[in-house]
Amino acid sequence: MKQFDFVSDLHLDFYAYGNTPQGKQKKAVVKYVNSLLPDECSDVIVIAGDISHYNVQFVWLFNELKNHYKHILFTTGNHDRYLINKNQCKKYDFDSDKRIQEIREIADSIEGVHYLDGTTIDIDGTVFGGFPGWHDGHYCRELGMVDEEKINDLYFSTMSDGHHIKGLQVYDQYMKEEMEKLLKIVDETHVMVSHYGPITPPNMPLKYQNLTSGFYYFNGREVLDQDSEHCMNPLVYIFGHTHDSYSFMYNKTHLVTNPIGYPHENWNTGIKTYIL
User: Fold this and answer.
1) Torsion-angle region of residue 273: left (phi > 0), alpha (psi -120 to 50) or beta?
2) Strand 247-250 and strand 191-193: pairing?
3) 166: Cβ–Cβ under 8 A, 6 or more apart, which residues?
C-alpha cells in the first residue's frame, strides 16, 4: 500500500443536528461528507475518533464513505461515548459502554468497515492498528500538579466528559485497559491510530501549555522511545482529540493529526491523503 486518507473529529451532529427529522439529518451528513472528500480518494480511510453523538449518523457516514473507499478504519473518541439527552440515557440504560457496543455492532454489519479497538488489519502489506486511547494526566504532573485528587477535581470541573459519559467515575478510568490494547498490537503495526495522542506535540501553542492539556494526551513514550523495552516505533501515528493540526517526528515515528472540529473551526480543512 502506498497511501491512505485520514481525518478525525468529524463531530457530525454539529453539522447535521440530532433534533431535526432523520431524513433531513441524513441529507446533511451526506452533503457534509462529500464536502470533505479529496479530489481522488485512496482505497483506505482512517478516522481517529469523535464521529458523532448519535449512532445512526455512524451508519449514514459509513454507507456514504463506502461509495468512495474499499476500507473504512475507525476508532472512537470521548464524544462517541456521550449520552447527551434523556432519550439516549434511557436507550443505553445510563451506560456509555452500551453505546460503544452498538457502534461495534454497526461496524460488524457493514462490509469493509473495521472498528480498531486493540485490533489490527493488514491491507496490501501495510498493517493498521488502533484503539480509542484515553488520558492519564501525565502532562498535569509534568507541570507540577502531582496530587491525584486535584487532577481528578480539575478534570470533572473543566471537561464535559464527566457529565455526558455515563459510568465514568475517575479521570483515568479507561487508561490501563487502553494501554494494554496498545501494547498488544504495537509490535506488528505500521500505522497506529488512536483518538488521544501518545505525546504532547513539541510545537504545541502556548495557550495549550496548561493543566487541561493533561486530558488530551497520554504517556506513550514507552512505545516511542528508542531505549524502551516496548519500543516498536510504528512508522506513522494518527491521532485526534485536539482540534489543531500537527505533524512532527518523535524518534522514528511520524505523528500526524487532521481534525475537522466544530463549524467555527478549520474552515479550509478536509480529508487528507498520507503518502507512505
Assistant:
1) beta
2) unpaired
3) 83, 89, 92, 94, 95, 96
Among 202, 172, 196, 168, residue whose Cα is nearest residue 95: 168
**What is the tens place of the pLDDT at every residue in 204-242?**
999 999 999 999 999 998 888 756 555 566 789 999 999
Q: Which pLDDT tens digit goes with each residue over 77-102?
A: 999 999 999 999 999 999 999 999 99
Strand boundaries in 63-202, DSSP class E: 71-75, 113-115, 119-123, 126-130, 191-193
Lowest mean pLDDT among 8-12, 236-240, 250-254: 250-254
Rounded Cα gap, residues 101 and 269, in angstroms: 30
pLDDT at site 99: 98
Task: Report the CATH architecture of 3-275.
Answer: 4-Layer Sandwich (3.60)
**Beta bridge mates, 248:** 255
pLDDT at 273 > cutoff 80: yes
Number of other residues whose CB lies within 10 A of the CB of residue 65: 24
Pick the closest to residue 13 from 51, 59, 66, 48 (CA basis).
Answer: 51
For residue 138, give the amino acid letter: H
Q: Which three cell numbers stand for residue 178?
A: 487502553
Q: Report how far Cα 246 is from the mean position of its chain's Cα atoms.
A: 14
With cell 513539541, the residue in question is 202
Integer CA distances (angstroms), 64 to 18, 26, 27, 69, 107, in order: 18, 10, 11, 9, 14
Cell of 271: 480529508
Q: Which residues contact 58 (CB under 8 A, 6 or more apart)?
A: 51, 52, 103, 106
Average the pLDDT over 231-257 and give the result. Answer: 90
Q: What is the pLDDT of residue 234?
A: 76
